[in-house]
Structure formats: structure tokens, C-alpha cells
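Q: My labmate handed me this sequence with no annotations at all. I'd like to see what the chain might look like in three dimensions before we decide whether it's worth expressing. Could you predict it?
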Amino acid sequence: MIAVALRAGAHGLYADEAACELLISHAIWLHRHDFTARFLHAGISITDGTDLAHIDWPAAITALDAAALPCCSSEGKMLRLAASLGAGIPVNLRDALVGLDQDNLRLVQQAVLHTGGHRPSH
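A: Here is what I predict for the chain of 122 residues:
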């Protein structure tokens, strides 16, 4: 349900879609109550009643930087990369990519392509 609302909230904005898909596919942050309760905000579309959601990327990164959102290194890197796509928060690619495993690098690759307008075909 969260994934559907995030996708609806980001629909049509490639970078926002890519950021949401990166977080959804990474399958960590959206399953953490300490993340969703603080940084995921839900609403309803005034035009058609669709459930919408968005992530408060700046607040999430502020919490991450303040060690108020404990996680392993790769989880933090993936959140930073998603926040960079979703809100333009600067990220050092060298720091963010070094040490990621092949699965996470594949997710980042897909997000970069999506941001450039190359949506996956479903």
C-alpha cells in the first residue's frame, strides 16, 4: 500500500519516481516504523481520491546525519542516493557507491536510467 501511494505521489516526475522506486526496491526503509512514522507523509488526491504519499527527504537525511536514524553503511548510502534524486540533496558519488554490493548497484543503475527518462517497461 505504501509503495502504491508513493508511486502515485511521484507520478510523472522522473527523478521523484526514480527516488521512490529506489527506496521501494531496496526494501529496507519502507519496512522500518522509525522511518515511515517520521518521514512518510500521506494524503489524498483532490482530483480523484487516489492515496498519495511523499517522503520528507531533507528531514530524513538530517536525522541520518545526526545518528538519529541508525542503520548499516549500505542502508545509509541508499537513502542518501534516493534523497539526492528525490530532493536534489547533494551526495558524494564516490562515498555513496564504493562498497555497495552488486544488487544495490543494480538498483542505483535502474534509478539513474529512470531519472534520465528511461522508465522500465512493466
